[in-house]
Each structure stands twice: as C-alpha cells, then as structure tokens.
Amino acid sequence: MNYHDFYAKAGRPVETCVVGTGGFGQSFLGQAQRVPLLNARIAVDLTAESAASGLKAAGIDPRRIHICEAAHAARAAWERGDYIATKDLALVSDLPFDVVVEATGQPRAAARHALLSVESEKHLALVTKELDSVVGPGLKALAAERGRVVTTVDGDQPSLLIGLATWAEIMGFHIVAAGKSSEYDFVFDPSSGHLASNERSAENVDLNAHWTLGGRDIEEILAARHQAIAGFPQRAVPDLCELMVVANATGLRPDRFDLHAPLARIGEVPTIFSRRDDGGILAGDGRLDVFHCLRKPDEISFAGGVFVVVRCDDAKSWDMLAQKGHVVSRTGANAMVFLPRHLLGLEAASSILDAAIHGMSGYGSDYQPRYDLIAVATEDLPAGTELAMGGHHHTISGVTAEFRPAGPLAASAPAPFYLAADCRLANPVSKGQEIRMSDLEWPEASPLMRLRREQDARFFGQRS
Q1: CA distance linking residue 38 with residue 7, whole number of Å
Q2: How far apart are CA 101 and CA 28, in angstroms?
Q3: Is residue 8 very low, low, confident or very high in pLDDT (cuts 50, 70, 90)?
Q4: Which residues partner with 421 through β-bridges?
Q5: How many other CB atoms are found less than 10 A from the CB of residue 70?
Q6: Which DSSP string do the residues of 253-320 spell out, in sequence order?
Q7: Helix axes 107-119, 447-460, angle to 10 degrees
C-alpha cells in the first residue's frame, strides 16, 4: 500500500501551525507546500515580520501573507484561506487547525507553546528536543488525557532511531547497540594529512597509521584516533539530548553517562559497537551511542543517519548478506542495519499525518522518564553566573551534559541541562561537579517548571 492510499482516509488536508521558522521549521514550511495532504498556513516567530519572511522563503505569494497582531485579524485571514504571520501562538490557538509544529529550540518558550497546544486541544509535533528532554513523557501523557497526540518527528534522529530500533525488535533481532552519527563528519585526506569537520580544520593530522582496524585492539586504535583529533570537540550536548529521548522511549541505555562517541569509519561500526567479549567497547547489549563519521573526501557520508547493531544469530544468512554488501563485524558476530539520512523538515510530514489522522505517536506507548540529561560544570563557576544557552547547538559555556537515572527534582537532585539553561547560579559550582536544583535561581511560575512538576507527580508519585 502506498502512502497516498494509506492516508486517503484523511478526507481533507491536515492543517498545521509552525512555531519557529528557522532551520527545521523553515524546511518544513517549504516541504508542506508540496505534500498533498498537508497545509501550513500559520507561522509564528519572535516577530510577525520574521514569521512572514519564513512563509515568503517557502514560496508563498507575499500578497496572501497577512501580518496579524490580533486574534480577529488572524481569524479573518484564516477564513479567506490566506496565510497568517504572527509573533504569539495565543493569537491563533483558537483557529481550527490540527497540529502545532513546535520548532523553536528554546525550552522555556516551547513549554508555553506546548501548554497552549494541549489546552486548545491541538496535536503537538515536538521538534524542540530541549523541551522533550525535560518534560516529554509527562507532556505526552497530559495530551493523551485530552485525546490528543504529542509526537516526535521524522527527519530528526530521535524519531528515526526509535522507528528503526522498534522495527528491529518486531523483526526478532537481538539489539546489541543503537545510535546515530554525529551531525558533522570528520573528513580526512590521507595524502596531505588535512582534517576538516564543521568549519574547523587541521594540518598534518596523524591518522594514516590508524586508518584501518585490521586485527588491532579496538580500545587502542580508538584512543590513538582520539589523541590525533584532540583539538576538535568530541562530545556534543545535542547528541546526548537526542539519545536520551530515545532511551526514554525504548528502554535502550547508554554504556557510559557521557557516551563513548568514537571516531569511526562506517564499515567499522558493528565491530566497535560490540560487546567487549566480541572485541568491541560495550559492557553489555541494548546500548545507545553516537559515532563521528571518519571518511575520505571522496567517500560517502553517513549523513547524520541512524543505525542498529544486531546479533548475527543466523550465521548462514548473515554470511550471504555480507556477500551482498551488508556491514558485518570483523568477527561475524554482529551486523549493522542503518538509515544514512535525516532530512529535517523535508520528511516530517509522515509523523504529522500519523498524529492527526491515525492518532499515532512516534514515541510509542511506553514513553517514560528513564533518564535525565543533567548539567555538569566543566570549569569553576562562581555564584551569579548566568547559564546562558546559545549558539547553533544550544550549549552553555562552562557546562556539559551527561545521562543520569531519572528522578524527581528534589533540592539535592542534579538539574536537567535544559531546565538549568538561562538560569543564574545561586551558589558556586566547582569543575566536574553536578549542578543541583538548589544551586539555581529559578522562576517558579513558569510553564516549564509546571510541566516538570506535573511529570514528577505522574511518574514518581511526588511533587518536586
């Protein structure tokens, strides 16, 4: 059955409102104009003018875009079948659209938008993983009580990995590991020693001696590669954030709280992400991790895609598959199945249509707070420090993130990374120390804290 037949029961296009028109939101606005079963006639951004710019960039005739500063103006534009640009979701939340696509990347703003969505009985496609990492399971449960769906979104790695891991389980595969490649490859030219990644580069990098695994000890070669690229960042908060969402949805877990994050070539993945007794780096099965894709300039990229490493229980079948080009570990014990893509808003429509038409959530039915993504100081932070979140990756200077088992937010509990974002420190925090809730000056009357307290009450039986 093709997608058009599958979604034919819709009867009419699904109407969406896009909140945040940069990056993911922008690519979704453009793609939505080409999806027959989807409309995106409302854009919300920091200013109505920037929302209008997002609609224009998506190819909308400027004469049909109306900047709306009041609800009655938005209603009039809607009834004419035109496009609405506004700075406040509250001005349009009463209009009869189906799904809010929240793509601001700002956890506090996203919490307000999520509550508005649920309270106005809209489905919510939650692109903002920063919010998801703090309150996702509770938000999904809250919406379900109103007969609405909160879903992760295809095009982002968490949704794609949840789908791939679930598929592997349904097929009866034993999952050894699952994960994704980092957003940017490490591209190495063996002839010159030039290495480039995410607009950084270095000359005379010593990777030629560590280019192939051969029969070498995995820990040894990964340590050598790590040392060779010591000048490049090798941990990224967004990777941890995304895999934490997957852990909460699937029950897969990290092998270490900050992830291994090795530098690896594509064909090495099932060898590296094997158990130690199979020559890999993992202490057990069902583990989550990320790798940095190492390749030559003329080799293909993993493209920020997702993978599962499965055990080759049927050795004869996997020997045949290896001959057909499938990626098997050097011992033959494990194999990798992968999707080398994440197309952001260009493939988000499938999740949004599933939510609106079929009432299906990409998180599945067992989304619960198994882990928190917590904040850890990487330098001494004096009292009064503003933990300002910024940059493309929404990081905090002087702070990194790690997994911890989830729990309610008592004063002594470690603070979730994206709950601590943009707070001020009430107490000094030493390098290497967890930032705790009692270390933060926090505005109690906030949608984000309200949602987190409700989640704690729902899943842990107590209000934090």
Answers
A1: 11
A2: 9
A3: low
A4: none
A5: 11
A6: EESSTT----EE-GGGHHHHTSBGGGTSSBSSSSEEEEEEEEE-TTSPP-TT-EEEEEE-SSHHHHHH
A7: 70
Rounded Cα–Cα distance for residues 360 and 379 (Å): 43
CA atoms within 13 A on the CB side of 339: 20
Rounded to whole angstroms, what are the CA distances from 462 to 323, 374, 408, 416? 55, 20, 7, 17
Per the listing, tokens 């490493």 go with 309
Predicted confidence band of residue 1 (pLDDT cuts 50, 70, 90): very low
Question: What is the spatial distance between Cα 419 and Cα 415, in angstroms, rounded to a whole number?
Answer: 7
Contacts of 145 (CB under 8 A, 6+ apart): none
- Torsion angles phi and psi, residue 236, rounded to 5: -135, 125
b or e along 135-168 (b: 16 or more beta carbons within 10 Å of the residue's beta carbon)? bbbbbbbbbeeeebbbbbbbbbbbbbbbbbbeeb
CA distance 288 to 138: 23
221 three-state secondary structure:
helix
pLDDT of residue 442: 83
Strand partners, 85: 43, 67
Q: Are the C-beta atoms of residues 400 and 356 closer than 8 Å to each other?
A: no
Q: Are 426 and 441 in contact (CB under 8 A)?
A: yes
Can you name the residues that pair with 200 across neighbouring β-strands?
A: 197
Quickly list H helices, 33-106: 48-57, 71-79
